[in-house]
Automatic annotation (TrEMBL):
Protein name: Uncharacterized protein
The organism of origin for this protein: Actinomadura rubrisoli
C-alpha cells in the first residue's frame, strides 16, 4: 500500500513518463522485420530510421517471436508519454471531482509506470 496520496502518485507517474520520454530517441517508432539494422529492429521514423532496438532472431516454433517484441516496443514509443502524462496529470488535478472507475484506471496506470504495488 502506498503512503502517498492518489494525486501525488498520479503526478509522480506523469513526471516519470515525461522525464524518461524526453531522453529517448524521438518517436514515433516503427518495427521492421528486415532492415539495415537487422531483423526485428525498432526504428525512429523521426531521425531517418535511427535504430532504437534490435530484438533478436526469429526462432521457428517459439511462442513469443522477436517480431512481436519489436512491434510492442515500437507501439509504446516515447510519443505515447505525453498523452498518458496529460491524462494522469488531469485526473490528479481533478481528483475530488472524479467518480467511479476512472480513479482506479488512472492509479493502475500510474502504479504500472512507477513500479509501485497496487
Amino acid at each position: 500500500m502506498s503512503d502517498q496520496s492518489p494525486a501525488t502518485e498520479l503526478l509522480a507517474a506523469a513526471r516519470l513518463l515525461r522525464e524518461t520520454a524526453v531522453k529517448a530517441t524521438p518517436g514515433p517508432w516503427t518495427a521492421e522485420h528486415s532492415s539495415w539494422a537487422g531483423d526485428n529492429a525498432v526504428l525512429s521514423t523521426v531521425i531517418g530510421g535511427h535504430a532504437v532496438a534490435v530484438c533478436g532472431e526469429e526462432v521457428r516454433g517459439v511462442t513469443l517471436p522477436a517480431s512481436a517484441d519489436a512491434a510492442w516496443i515500437a507501439l509504446m514509443g516515447p510519443d505515447k508519454a505525453e498523452p498518458l502524462a496529460t491524462f494522469l496529470h488531469h485526473v490528479a488535478e481533478t481528483w475530488v471531482f472524479q467518480k467511479g472507475a476512472i480513479r482506479g484506471f488512472a492509479l493502475a496506470i500510474a502504479r504500472a509506470v512507477t513500479g509501485r504495488a497496487a
